[in-house]
Amino acid sequence: MLNVHDLEKRWKSYKIKSFLPYFIITMILFISIPIVYIFYTNDNANVLLHKSIIQKKNLPPIAVTKEENKTIPAIKNITTKKSLIIQKVPLNKEIQTLQPSMDFMQNIQHTSAQPQYIKQQNPKKRPTAKKIRKKVKPKIIQEVIQDITPEVTPTKKEPKVVITIERKETKNDIYEIIKRFKNNNNPALSLFVAKKYYELGNYGQSYNYALITNQINSNIEASWIVFAKSLVKLHKKDKAIQTLKEYIKVSHSSNAEILLNEITSGRFK
Amino acid sequence: MDSIFVNSKNVFLDTVNVKDYIQLDRVSTIYQSLKDSIKKPLKMILLYGKPGTGKSMFLTKLYSDLSEENNIYLYQTPILDENEFYKTLAQDIFNIKYNDELNFTQFMKIVKDKKTKQTPIILLDEAQLYSEALMEKIRLLSDTRSIKFIITLHKTEKEDLIAKEHFKTRIWETIELVNASNSELKIYIQKKLMKANCFDTANMFSTKTVNKIYKLTKGNYRDTNKLLYTLFDIYITYEQSSHIYPFNTTHIPNKFVEMAAIHTGLINA
């Protein structure tokens, strides 16, 4: 007869022994997986934290406030946010951070004088001026913000604005000069307008302004040449030739002679 | 009436009995080749394999089958004393009884003088226990072709040396016996039980159970016999004791197999 009790005990201890490695491995896995996961996630968090710290270190203290204010969506919220910023930032820090803001003040003053050009420049710099201002002199800030905030929304349409810059500049220049010409009747300005219109292909206007220039001062060679060229372009070749001939008689201008030859020979059309 | 487990247990008593010989396909092929080799003019036949692969059973079966027709002698227990060895052979083969010492030279003379009708076949089991000197003399005896030797060896490194170097130059037949495979083990167990009319217990050995047994015994016949003997002993113990175990005759629980393995030392618990 076998001692079954003893054999069963031995069998139980054998089973425990045989399952022990699997149990240990399973336990190790159960323990190690969360540890690794936590370690990994912590590591990532640390990396992110570290990165953010580095970013904070790299940026001046103003940068933090800048980012907060960049998110300002509309003018209505500005006044409330202003007060919040003032509460958060201590006075000592304000003094420190105020130093660079004076440049922005200058920039703002400069840009406010030429509102149309502001759009074409980097609009990101603008909010920094706003915020710094807010901290220093609340009253000034209000004024500045009112000036600038409308420009925040157009920044989205930046490419379109940029495309039209050149043409606007030229036309604006002409209008500016015309205004100035109307004020002082300077033939140099009218001649400039005439040349510009000729370049733009507006030969009627170039003819008019060249004629005006000649009426003010009939001794300007360039004005007579633009006048003649404009006539040719307006299909009044004979009148242009006649005008040049009369001018050559008076002035003996070599440039006028060259142009006359070109017109008569048909090289200038 | 004995329990089915008692009969099944007795089937696996580790004894070398020709009646217990189980004919497996591979074993029967080897057996047939051995029988064919005996008919050939070979001096010696070497049967080798690990302990428990059925070498002794093989020799016993061969002796049982050929004893009626051939002049065959089986020595299951080695005769270690050289003088005693010659005297035993002289008495068994030539029916000459020596009271005094009989040395190799004298025995050789007897072998040459006393010719028999049939070449006597000497089956020596556990030949690894014979001394090297005696083994050399057995080789010399086999060279006379007056006596044919069939010897069995345990397969160890040393015995391989004997097989490969010492006797390799002679005209030898070497047959290796190996452990059973999974399927062979199942056939072996079931055939053995069915031979003893234990059909119920034979059906309990499913492939899963046999695989478990194979894992423990590695297909060794002796270990399997020991394990199954203990297994049925456990069944009997549970049956006879007050422990009421829910016996299921469709399969053998792994617990019982493992308990039997612990008891037989196949599992170190």
Can you describe this structure?
The complex is a heterodimer of chains A (269) and B (269). With 269 residues, chain A is mainly α. Chain A has 14 helices and no strands. Chain A has helices at residues 4-58, 61-70, 78-88, 91-113, 115-118, 125-136, 138-152, 158-163, 165-184, 187-200, 203-216, 221-233, 237-251, 254-265. The radius of gyration of chain A is 40 Å and the shape is rod-shaped. Chain B has 269 residues and is α/β, with parallel strands linked by helices. Chain B has two domains: 4-12 and 180-264; 25-177, Rossmann fold (3-Layer(aba) Sandwich), CATH 3.40.50.300. Chain B is 53% helix and 10% strand. Chain B contains twelve helices and five strands. A five-stranded parallel sheet of chain B has the order 2-3-4-1-5, with helices on both faces. In chain B, helix 1 packs antiparallel against helix 11 (221-240), helix 8 (182-195) packs across helix 10 and helix 11 (221-240) packs across helix 12 (254-264). The longest helix of chain B is centred in the last third of the chain and has 20 residues, at 221-240. The radius of gyration of chain B is 22 Å and the shape is elongated. The two termini of chain B are 35 Å apart. The model of chain B has no long low-confidence stretch (mean pLDDT 86). Classes of the chains: A mainly alpha (269), B alpha/beta (269). The interface between A and B is medium-sized, with 11 and 15 residues.
Keywords:
heterodimer; A: 269 residues; B: 269 residues; Rossmann fold; 5-stranded parallel β-sheet; elongated
